[in-house]
Amino acid sequence: MIERSLIELEARLFAVELVQETGRHLRAGADPLNYSAVDFVEEIRPRQYHKDTDSLADAHGLLLLCPLCFERAGTSHVHAVIVPFDERGCPVVLMRAPDGKPVYWKASGTGLKDLVLTPSVRPVDGCCWHGFIGSGGVKPGHAR
Predict the structure, then answer these.
(1) Please, what is the Cα angle at 141 between 138 and 144, to 5 degrees?
(2) What is the separation of C-alpha 29 from the centre of its chain, rounded to a whole number of angstroms?
(3) CA end-to-end span of the chain, whole Å?
(4) Residue 131 and residue 62 in contact, taking contact as beta carbons nearer than 8 Å
(5) Residues 66-96: pLDDT tens digits?
(6) Which residues, including other chains, have CB under 8 Å from residue 98's CB and lie 6 or more apart?
(7) What is the pLDDT of residue 25?
(8) 90-125 b/e with 16+ CB inside 10 Å = b?
C-alpha cells in the first residue's frame, strides 16, 4: 500500500460542539408507521455539530478518506474514517468498540502536516483498513 499525505486523503481536524435546539419529535409510544400531528411534541434537545479546525490542540478527532479504499478506487466510492482523539474533552462518544467501550487514539503534533496517532488505526466499522498515521514507519502527516 502506498503512503499518502493526509492532505491527499482530504483529511480534516474537527471539534464537536453541542447546541441546544428546539425541534419537533415523534412522542414516545407513538406508532412510527401510523401517526398524526398530535403524536408530535416540541422538545429542546442537544444537536451535534462537527466544526473544522486547523489546530490540533482544539481538535476532538480526525476525518479522512479511507487509505485502503482510496488506493483501490481513488476518490470515487470511498468512505470516510473518523478517528476520535483521547483526552480532548469531547462532549460525545464518537466511536465504540463491539463491547460498548469508547475508542480513542493518542494524537501528537501541531496539525495535519505533522500529525502522529498511536496506536495503529483500525476503525470499528467500514472496510478492513488497518494502518498507521505518522507512526509505524510512516512519516508524520501521512497514512498507510
Answers:
(1) 40
(2) 32
(3) 6
(4) no
(5) 998 888 887 778 889 999 999 888 988 998 8
(6) 124
(7) 85
(8) beeebbeeeeeeebbbebeeeebeebbbeeebebee
> What's the rounded Cα separation, in Å, for the pair 129 and 68?
6
Q: Which three cell numbers stand for residue 61?
A: 478527532
Q: Which three cell numbers stand for residue 28?
A: 414516545
- How far apart CA 81 and CA 126 sit, in angstroms, is 8
CB-CB contact of 141 with 56 (8 Å): no
Whether the per-residue pLDDT at 131 is higher than 80: the answer is yes
What are the percentages of helix, strand and coil residues in the chain, rounded to 5?
Answer: 10, 40, 50
State pLDDT tens for residues 116-129: 999 988 877 767 88
Give me the mean pLDDT over the 48-68 stretch: 93
Domain range list for the chain: 4-15+61-143
CA angle 50, 85, 2 (to 5 degrees): 95
